[in-house]
Amino acid sequence: MTGPRDEHAEAAADIAAVEQANTAFYEAMERGDFEELSGLWLPGEDLTVSCVHPGWPVLTGRGEVLRSYALIMANTEYIQFFLTDVGVSMTGDTALVTCTENILSGGPAEDGNALGPLVGQLVVATNVFRRTPDGWKLWSHHGSPVLTETGEEEDEETPS
């Protein structure tokens, strides 16, 4: 018989495992490790995976989603994610992770430089994981750009 203390310990272990799976996803992207990234998504098509990259249409199905990551990795020389505001919610075998991706990236080099210009971007993301016999696997990723307001826009909205 399990008591409240055991259930709390199990829930804490599950949350830690989901947080690790989420971190592994971003670390695989940073290293450009397509094989590892592929292994982090749900296998097969029993539960159709989906992905929304900022500014892209919805991608569905494992093949389409993984092709998008291959394309991004092929065209990104450098990418680093600083995750903030990470939150995990769970119910049964499903976990929802929300976070802010503070992204620094650079494209292919221009004019003989080692790396193209670095660009910063802020994206809010929702990652849905499912428990499998092989651990927590991504079911869905949705990233939306954060639109920031400038002081000028705020001044224009102020009545005179």
TrEMBL record:
<protein>
    <submittedName>
        <fullName>Ketosteroid isomerase homolog</fullName>
    </submittedName>
</protein>
<dbReference type="InterPro" id="IPR032710">
    <property type="entry name" value="NTF2-like_dom_sf"/>
</dbReference>
<dbReference type="InterPro" id="IPR037401">
    <property type="entry name" value="SnoaL-like"/>
</dbReference>
<dbReference type="GO" id="GO:0016853">
    <property type="term" value="F:isomerase activity"/>
</dbReference>
<keyword id="KW-0413">Isomerase</keyword>
<dbReference type="Pfam" id="PF13474">
    <property type="entry name" value="SnoaL_3"/>
</dbReference>
<feature type="region of interest" description="Disordered">
    <location>
        <begin position="141"/>
        <end position="160"/>
    </location>
</feature>
<feature type="domain" description="SnoaL-like">
    <location>
        <begin position="18"/>
        <end position="146"/>
    </location>
</feature>
<feature type="compositionally biased region" description="Acidic residues">
    <location>
        <begin position="150"/>
        <end position="160"/>
    </location>
</feature>
